[in-house]
Design goal:
heterodimer; A: 366 residues; alpha/beta; abc type-2 transporter like fold; four-stranded mixed sheet; 8% strand; B: alpha/beta; 5 strands; elongated
């Protein structure tokens, strides 16, 4: 029996890997994408283009402008000469931020009143806008403190961040990419495996062999499992060695989580595959599952920001759990015991969908 | 002209095929509605009611004023903890996202003008949310400080007045929904076409088409026209949902929006056809379509992650992503208006991409059996 399963698994491997083009699309893109997305997917801002409209032209206003120039986040774009040029500069996206200082800035400060600073921010991307606002506030607070060395700003919050002291969003995003790409590869390998045979008519032949549905299930699962493990391992190496994200927890915990995740991804893939009659349907089904699974996993936008009903809906999404495991093991050094609540739901999803797939093999749905 | 008749015949055949295999209809109409509904509600970067642990070691009027302001802020739902130990445990178990710690000496320090920071600890794993929390706390503190200074008749050195243009409510939905339309249309454009050419090759019907007097150009037109019509239909649905369901303002003109969407769709369909013709195999075509469309449109287009912050080499890669140009256009038309200096260069880039992809398609689709 084991021999039969292995024979089927070998055949599955050959179906995926014998064609050089199909081999290339399974192996190369995840590695390239880990690298490219690892650099691109970040919420941290640097070289923010900003412009200054300094109508005060005083020593103190220049001092404030100098502070922006000295900040590593801001990259000066231009000085605006007339107030009428502010709107076009922002409209054309030449600057994300315009710092506007009207006449009287210096006079007010010297007289003990507040100097007025106006910050005009391009809100087309509201997240970026808020981050820019925070950075700009920090610069201006620094300026305010330097003007009154004798007086402290009472109670100014001193913030410490656990696990990620410099608040690098890369540490959050890059481990998540492992989850996304592992899901992609596993789904592609499994979602088409039954559909391909259905379309080519060879699945009926498979059904009349001595292989039982369980054997077929195992034979069809093995390639996804193997390819998923290998790709994930390569990506873990890239994330730790290339991007320098700390792997604080135990690799064993990570791999137990990965195994649970792969079981659920394979189960869903095989279920979609046995529901579809043509490869196009298999591909579409995989796609219709994968796109929401990725976008609603908490990868880029937190699950906690979703409406209640949708948070409940995401409980059926295995990637949601795997994201918590990835970040927990990498950044927080979480243990298996802490992560167990994330692991069992994936195992449950995996076993339910695998059973369903096995039952669906015999049935042809037209 | 017989040429036109042939194309019409092919278009009719393609439409019939679309109607009979409902999956294409599903891609064009159900997918945008389903995805936009799901993501329009599900994607948000606006952290509200962030659970926050508040540890006040020695309650006083000063601390009460500060915690009262936290209570009022819609960004936080503060919970009182008796000790730092309990609060730290709650932070570790993700019960709260941050701790605000007011030490016993808080009021005394304030009175004596000594440095007395409000201690804040955030869970830094989700750095973006942590930074948002930090920013919101900063605003609460600034407000508290302002009121306090006003009471004593002092003025702060600088008062900041910030204006966030185009999106005064600072709602992330206003930019995520237009961006989603671009991501969804990328998917649909590529998926619709990526599979059809590969399917003709695999089923051998391409050979049947070759022995007819139909030219390759006509075959391509016959493929392009029906899927273009379907894609534009999906676009209309998506824009309608953005306007009336998600209440995203449309400040530019609808004509400009749909004109640029048409150019973008040509590029997306052209890309799908190019993949499909190069792959000639549904597995490879489908995988290549997913790899080159969805994830790049999601990560490399400025949809959610700011492109300008990426290293130069990665920024160069983003110039190959059609969604990048369309997202710049669609966010601007929706939120800012018809700003030609943004729209024209991006539309030109899309036109060039459409030309390149369709050129590849024409060049590679000789009537030949290799």
């Amino acid at each position: 029996m084991l021999r039969r399963i292995l024979a089927l698994a070998t055949k599955e491997f050959l179906a995926i890997l014998k064609d050089p083009r199909s081999r290339a699309v399974v192996i190369v893109p995840p590695i390239i994408q880990t690298l490219v997305f690892g650099y691109a997917a970040t919420f941290d801002l640097n070289h923010v283009a900003y412009a200054v409209y300094d109508a005060d032209r005083s020593a103190i206003s220049r001092e404030l402008v100098e502070r922006f120039r000295g900040s590593p986040v801001f990259l000066e774009n231009k000085m605006i000469a007339a107030a009428g040029d502010i709107a076009p500069t922002v409209d054309r996206r030449e600057a994300l931020l315009v710092v506007r200082l009207d006449p009287g800035f210096e006079r007010n400060i010297l007289a003990g009143r507040s100097g007025q600073v106006q910050l005009i921010i391009d809100g087309r991307n509201s997240n970026t806008a808020l981050i820019v606002l925070n950075y700009a506030r920090e610069v201006i607070n620094g300026f305010a403190m330097s003007r009154q060395p004798d007086q402290t700003l009472p109670g100014q919050p001193v913030v410490r961040a656990w696990f990620n002291p410099n608040l690098e969003s890369r540490w959050f995003i890059v481990p998540g990419i492992i989850g996304i790409l592992t899901l992609l590869v596993t789904m592609m390998v499994t979602a088409l495996s039954v559909a391909r045979e259905r379309e080519q008519g060879t699945f009926d032949q498979l059904l009349v062999t001595p292989l039982r549905p369980l054997d077929i299930l195992l034979g069809k699962s093995l390639p996804g499992l193997a390819i998923g493990f290998v790709e994930a391992t390569v990506m873990v190496l890239i994330v730790t060695l290339w991007f320098g994200v700390p792997l604080r927890g135990s690799p064993w915990t990570l791999y137990i989580g990965l195994a649970a995740f792969l079981s659920s991804a394979i189960g869903i893939g095989l279920m979609i595959s046995s529901l579809s009659v043509t490869m196009q349907q298999g591909l579409l089904g995989a796609f219709l599952f994968m796109v929401p699974a990725i976008l609603l996993s908490g990868f880029a936008t937190p699950v906690a920001n979703m409406p209640e009903w949708m948070q409940t809906l995401t409980l059926t999404n295995p990637l949601r759990y795997f994201m918590v495991i990835l970040r927990g093991v990498f950044v927080e050094g979480a243990s298996l015991r802490v992560l167990w609540p994330q692991i069992w739901p994936m195992l449950l999803i995996g076993s339910l969908t695998l059973v369903a797939a096995g039952r669906l093999f015999r049935r042809r749905l037209y | 002209m017989s040429d036109n008749r042939r194309v019409r015949g092919l278009v009719r055949k393609e439409f019939l095929q679309i109607l009979r295999d409902p999956s294409s209809i599903a891609i064009a109409f159900l997918m945008p509605v389903f995805l936009l509904l799901l993501f329009g509600y599900g994607l948000s970067l606006d952290a509200e009611h962030v659970p926050l642990a508040v540890v006040v070691e020695k309650p006083s009027a000063e601390t009460a004023r500060f915690t009262g302001m936290l209570q009022q802020s819609r960004y936080f739902s503060p919970k009182d903890f008796a000790s730092m130990r309990d609060a730290e445990l709650a932070l570790r178990t993700h019960e709260v996202d941050g701790i605000v710690h007011l030490r016993a000496s808080f009021a005394a320090d304030l009175k004596a003008q000594r440095e007395s920071g409000i201690q804040v600890i955030v869970n830094g794993v989700d750095a973006n949310t942590a930074r948002m929390v930090q920013g919101y706390l900063g605003s609460v503190w600034a407000l508290w400080l302002e009121q306090r200074l006003q009471a004593t008749g002092q003025a702060p050195v600088v008062s900041i007045d910030h204006r966030i243009w185009y999106n005064t409510a600072v709602s992330s939905r206003n930019y995520l929904v237009p961006g989603l339309i671009a991501v969804i249309m990328t998917l649909i454009g590529a998926l619709l076409t990526a599979l059809v050419m590969a399917r003709e090759w695999e089923r051998g019907t391409m050979e049947a088409l070759m022995v007819t007097p139909v030219s390759m150009r006509e075959v391509l037109l016959g493929k392009l026209i029906p899927y273009f019509v379907l894609g534009m239909g999906g676009m209309v649905l998506s824009v309608a949902m953005a306007l009336w369901l998600f209440h995203v303002p449309l400040r530019g003109s609808a004509v400009v929006l749909f004109a640029s969407a048409a150019i973008f769709l040509l590029a997306a369909l052209g890309m799908g056809l190019a993949i499909s013709i190069t792959a000639r195999n549904q597995f490879v075509a489908g995988l290549a379509a997913i790899i080159t469309t969805f994830l790049p449109a999601f990560m490399l287009s400025g949809f959610i992650f700011d492109i300008a912050s990426a290293p130069v080499a990665v920024q160069a890669v983003t110039y190959l992503v059609a969604a990048r140009y369309f997202i710049a256009i669609i966010q601007t038309i929706f939120l800012a208006g018809n700003i030609w200096p943004v729209i024209l260069p991006n539309a030109a880039a899309l036109l060039a991409m459409a030309g390149v992809f369709l050129g590849i398609v024409v060049a590679r689709s000789r009537k030949r059996l290799d």
